[in-house]
Amino acid sequence: PIKLRVSEALSGAELGANVKVQGWVRSVRPQKKNLFLHVNDGSSLQSLQVVGRAELDDPLLTFGSAVEVSGVLKKSTHQKQPFELEADQIRVVGTCNPIDFPFKIKERHSLEYIRQFPHLRCRTNVFGSLLRVRSEATAAIHSYFKNNGFVQIHTPIITSNDCEGAGEIFSVQSSGPQDVDDGNFFSVPTFLTVSGQLHLEVVSGAFSRVYTFGQSFRADNSQTRRHLAEFFMVEAEISFTQSLEDLIKVIEDMFRSATEHVLAHSAEDVDLFHQRVTPGHRATVDAMLKKSIPVITYTEAIDILKRSSENFDFPTDWGCDLKTEHEKYVVKHCGNLPVFVTDYPYDLKPFYARDNQEHSERTVAAVDLLVPGVGELCGGSLREERLDLLRARLEDAGLADTYSWYLDLRRFGSVPHGGFGLGFDRYLQCILGVDNIKDVIPFPRFVQSCLL
Ligand code: 4AD
Ligand code: MG
């Protein structure tokens, strides 16, 4: 027999041929004359209907068991599914005791419930859909960059720089018999990367458009619905970028292109979320794609917050950081749609952000993209390319020695440039409407929790 994936069988590949399908049982319905099974192998949200003689039934054929089915692929009379597998052999490869198995047949378990079983939740329809959307969105982002002339750079996970300087870093130490200098393997303090930006900036000294897409790590002590200790970030760096508008255009293009790709290529899986898990969210996604994203300044955002009658837990004076509650309010104010906020106070952003010297208030050319339900999705800036200004800022922070190589980038062929980082897990929250970031990543790591 020809081995088929469920998705291939569902599309009628090898119709009339002897085929074999392997997967996990999603439903079992023994009837007088016939046995009906649904088998899923992760290739599609839909399961393949298997029909066999009643004698093929086996007490070990239960929800969750692994099976291998051989038979002939036929046209089905069912309107819901055009093809079915007429089985002449069903072999139970791995049994699954339905009493102990945490998921029950025909039940729709909540995301919170399945989160308790990180080693098993991929066997549910909803998490299966999530994983396929995640994979498709990853492909969509890579294809956006490929189509727009960006070169992918593998930036390191182990690094000796703390790009953001926010202090939320994990240190790296060695252990074991080959231990060097009390665990100081690299002879300098090393960390898990918080951002690949500085490495991208190195390469952007020779390549006009580069990007990276991988893990970032932050020892964020807060248990929130949008923070992970290990998350995925999409980062791009573009040389010869003169204005924040140019950067904003790339962010918006990427957001739109990736989202349209996912809606088109993962329609069934996205619909599962938009229809069953987060009803009503599809309208928000459609509205997000309809218009171009408005741009306001930080100062305007502060004015919006000051004019509001809401009592915020945190102050809203000029110079204050925008907290999640502020971001959500600003998004609501803008029609519950995405909004870019630009020109943040100099003191709120890291050393690399470009000084807006011409502004009356001391600000930098930085931009955040705020989106409904999530708040900050993306942060970027023009980078300070002027050697004297950058050196002065690093000296003030006592970092001039640490970053002497970074200063070198401004000594040898420095150009105006800028870039951004988009939180990929938050992006999935944003398009699917998922409330908790732990439900959009296969293996969430957060404070006090590293299961598996
Ligand atoms: O705003 P951030 O800290 O920006 C940077 O790291 C820049 N160096 C990026 C760059 O310009 N190349 O992080 C970027 C994005 C945030 O907007 C947020 O979406 C996401 O990364 N992010 C997190 N996502 C999940 N969990 C966390 N703990 C996150 N911290 C940041
Ligand atoms: Mg940020």
Automatic annotation (TrEMBL):
Keywords: Aminoacyl-tRNA synthetase, ATP-binding, Ligase, Nucleotide-binding, Protein biosynthesis. GO terms for biological process: asparaginyl-tRNA aminoacylation. SUPFAM superfamilies: Class II aaRS and biotin synthetases (SSF55681), Nucleic acid-binding proteins (SSF50249). Gene3D superfamilies: Bira Bifunctional Protein, Domain 2 (3.30.930.10), Nucleic acid-binding proteins (2.40.50.140). It holds the Pfam family tRNA-synt_2. Its EC number is 6.1.1.22. GO terms for molecular function: asparagine-tRNA ligase activity; ATP binding; nucleic acid binding. Residues 131-442 form the Aminoacyl-transfer RNA synthetases class-II family profile domain. One of its GO terms (cellular component) is mitochondrion. It comes from the Eukaryota. NCBIfam families: asnS, PRK03932.1. PANTHER family: ASPARAGINE--TRNA LIGASE, MITOCHONDRIAL-RELATED, ASPARTYL/LYSYL-TRNA SYNTHETASE. Belongs to the class-II aminoacyl-tRNA synthetase family. This is asparagine--tRNA ligase. The gene is nars2.
